[in-house]
Each structure stands twice: as C-alpha cells, then as structure tokens.
Amino acid sequence: MSQTTERSIRTAVRHVAIALLPELHSIGEGMVVHLGEEMPEMSHPGTLGLARTACHANSKLLLEALSRGVPPEELTPSTEVVLATRASVQYGVNHDNVMRGYRLGTAYWCKRWAQAVEKHCTDASLAVPVTSYGITFLFAWLEVASTRLGAEFRDETERQAREGSLAWAAYVRSALTSEDLDAREASLRLGYDLGGHHVALVLSHYRSGDHTALDSTAFEIAAAVSRLKPLVVRVDVDTTWCWIPSRAAL
Q1: What is the full DSSP assignment across the chain?
Q2: 53, 111, 134 from 78: Cα distances, Å
Q3: Per-residue model confidence as pLDDT tens for the chain (250 residues)
Q4: Cα 7 from Cα 232, distance rounded (Å)
Q5: Which residue of 57, 82, 223, 250 has the smallest Cβ count within 10 Å?
Q6: Residue among 155, 156, 159, 146 nearest 77 (CA)
Q7: CA 210/CA 207 separation, integer angstroms
Q8: 10 Å Cβ neighbour count for 12?
C-alpha cells in the first residue's frame, strides 16, 4: 500500500468519525439496548446503569480516538469506566459476563461503523479499507480494554474478599472473647455448631515467601479427622484458624 493511499484511508477514517459525532449518544444507547437483549442477566437497574455509563464513556473515547488518529494501544479506559467495572463486582457480575459485554459492545460498534462508512465515505474505492481499518481498530481496543479492565475487576474482587475475611475474623474473635455469647445465634451465623467438643488448629506459613494455600490445607486436615463441616477462618495472609467438631474432648 502506497503512502498516498494510506494517508487517504486515514483521512477518510477521520472524516467518517467526525460525521458520527452527532450520533454519539445514539451509539451509546443502542449499545445498552443490544446488551440488554443479548444478556438478560444485565436487566437489574443497578447493573444496567453501570453498563450505560461504560457504553457512553467508551463510545466517546473510541470516536475521539478515531477522529484524531490515536492508535488503540495508547488509549486508557476513563475513570468512569474503571469505577463502573469495580462497582460491577459489588452487584455480583462475574468476570466472564463483563468480558462478554465488551465483546458484544465491540460487535455493535463494528456494525455502526460499517453503516457510517457506507453513509459518509464519499470515495467508493476507500469504503472497504476504511471499514477494515475501523474494525481492526475496535478489536485492538477490545484487547486493550480486556487486559486493563480485567485487572481492575480482579483487584476489586480480591479487595472485597480481603475485607470480607477481615470482618469474618473480627466476628470470630469477638465470639471467642464474649462473656455473654448467644451460642445458638452465633452458630447460625457461623454455619458451625459451637456445642460439644472441638479440635482447634492454627496454621501458619513456615517461612517468608511461603505461598501454601492454608485454607485448603485446613479443609484437607478436617476431612481426614471428621465428616462434619469445620470452621475455617483466615486471620491474615500468613495465618488461618480451624475448628473441627470432635465426639469427645482430646
């Protein structure tokens, strides 16, 4: 491809992108409708609201990049999109659904881009390469978004898990030290019968840098001792407590 032809394609891409600017809101809303039709699990108002935020913010980012000739690898998801991705964890949206939403959104954008090229590309000989350019750009952006937002999703999932573990450990500590503990209520909350006898274990990493999964180890030991469900509590990154029901005091 000659430099002249390449410049003509890029100029036509910018022309189509600029012509699409008045349709920006329509593209964002159309993407939301498309996601709702393809993913009924997104119908919860809160989840749909997060999707709408991401659809509009991403559409604005993409259209501005196409109109200015910014390559997809230089794009960064906006703060709005990052926050919406993190908030989706709180609504129970799993990682696979977030990524599926981005694939569906990209497919919708490709359709709108092809329609825009047909409508606004005045040189018929450039229609195919301009369409191809836009689609290649959009799928490159999908790769960027999947990597960066996937990391945000995992970080938020881990953060919430840590906070949940800390809250759980704090409740167990209070149960251990309480002088007026309602054993029945505590048993229901813990999902573990506090009556009877128990074998108590403290598992910890042997040395710094040890990454043994202490929770899994605790469950393996408990299964070897009793068929009853143990109570396993992660105290911190290097310590796990475990109680195993026992038929008699040891």
Answers
A1: --HHHHHHHHHHHHHHHHHHGGGHHHHHHHHHHHHHHH-GGG-SHHHHHHHHHHHHHHHHHHHHHHHHT--GGG----HHHHHHHHHHHHTT--HHHHHHHHHHHHHHHHHHHHHHHHHH---GGGHHHHHHHHHHHHHHHHHHHHHHHHHHHHHHHHHHHHHHHHHHHHHHHHHHH-SS--HHHHHHHHTS--SSEEEEEEEE-SSTT----HHHHHHHHHHHH-SSPPEEEEEETTEEEEEEEESS--
A2: 11, 23, 21
A3: 666 688 999 999 999 999 999 999 999 999 999 999 999 887 777 888 899 999 999 999 999 999 999 999 999 999 999 999 988 887 888 889 999 999 999 999 999 999 999 999 989 999 999 999 999 999 999 999 999 999 999 888 877 777 777 888 888 888 888 888 888 888 888 888 888 889 999 999 877 767 777 888 888 898 888 888 888 888 877 888 999 988 765 5
A4: 64
A5: 250
A6: 146
A7: 6
A8: 21
Tokens of 242: 């475990």
The one-letter code for the residue type at 73 is: E
Which tokens sit at 233? 């509590």
> Global pTM?
0.69
